[in-house]
Amino acid sequence: MNIKAKLSTFDATMIVVSLVIGIGIFRTPAMVASSTGTPVIFFAAWILGGFISFLGALTFAEVGSRFPKPGAFYKVVADCYHPSVAFMLNWTNVTVVNGAGGAAVAMIGAEYILPIIFPESMRTQGMTQVTAAVLVIFLIVINYLGIKTGAWAQNILTVIKISMILLLGFVAFTYGGSKPIASTQSLNNDSIWIALGVGLISVFYTYGGYQCTLNFGGDIKHPEKNMPRAIFFGILIIIGLYLIINLAYYSVLGIEGIAGSKLVAAEVARICFGKSAYLIVSIAIFLSALGFVNVTLMQIPRSYYAMAQDGALPSIFMKVNEKTQTQEFTLLFFGCTILGSIFLLGTFERILSYVMIFDTLNNALVASTVFILRKRGVTSSEGQPYRVPFYPVLPAIFVLFLLTITVNVIISQPGSLLVGGLILLAGYPVFLLMRRVTRYTNSIEAGSPRT
After folding, report:
1. Residues 328 and 147: beta-carbon distance below 8 Å
2. Out of 3.40.190.10, 3.40.640.10, 1.20.1740.10, 2.60.120.260, which CATH number does the structure's domain 9-378+388-442 have?
3. Looking at the whole model, is its pTM more than 0.90?
4. Which of 20, 70, 218, 361 would staple 209 via disulfide (CB 3.0–4.6 Å)?
5. Residues 259-264: what's their mean pLDDT?
């Protein structure tokens, strides 16, 4: 059955914010500080990443406005290039990017909550994984109740997340304690560009996610207008919040303190207010992790829906509960991929190295469809689409930047290319097999099995 639009502009904007601000901003600044080494390069990486993400927001706003369909992040590639290409990239999303990304956030959320609910002797890697799994199962139940129930929970969690970041920034800026010692590290010209390039890998991961709003093309009311608005305002909120919280981190810890603090947000709160603030911020960040995993469970099943429409998956992945608008089987299937990733892939940094090589490549391909859609003159049936300014320059800059990030990942993490490449290539025979299985299944349902 078809998906019915139930989400408002506010719902969509909160989805954009939560797709991006998961847990990365509370963890990746330490990785960026370690890579860049100096305040100037550290903040240059965040500002450049924000600028490029804004170009991406403009690009994906036009793609979403011209192609407002369920699972459009997959569907637009299948339509503009070929279903096999779209399947191979979404195959990697299913097995690595989305499952592992959701698992990574769930595990970091568990890291923050473990010191509150368990004694130190029980804070093991195994307990972190079990806690993360319980978190994921709870959210699967919430989303099983319906798309509006998931959106309602999402709005509350996102408002808490934004309030927490603003509060932490205010507290840090008014902190009256000793100031951090300035970094004395200096780099030559070649090292500066290398440091900036490596730092941008983690920065761009932290800014990523807003493009997945395309998957809600069938869920958002009047998507030709409301999707561009949600992406545009959502990314502006995100850029502002990221700059505020990184300035807060730096004002309290300095660049070396950020680099040496694994749980940087909680460390800033501990310095400013003591143990009680540490606990409060840990709970708030745990809730932020809830929000990201929740929105992931909301949007990825729509991608499966689009794949099933193309015959790349059995029709059961397209089955929608008419009352709740939930893809019940698909939700449970995807939830299991997250749970499997929690116990198979391990630490956040290891997951990140596998995620980034596909994340940027897939985003570049989806973004490039704007050139094809514009050339074909594709428009929504409900009105005139949004048009990215300074076309084709701005979309071209964004796509080239994504490809540069991909090259940086390959250079800095060559092992991920081998593992990821094998997974990517394995998608093609799976695509052919699933097409055959789907045709056979459909013929049986029609009462004329093929021999």
Report:
1. no
2. 1.20.1740.10
3. no
4. 20
5. 78
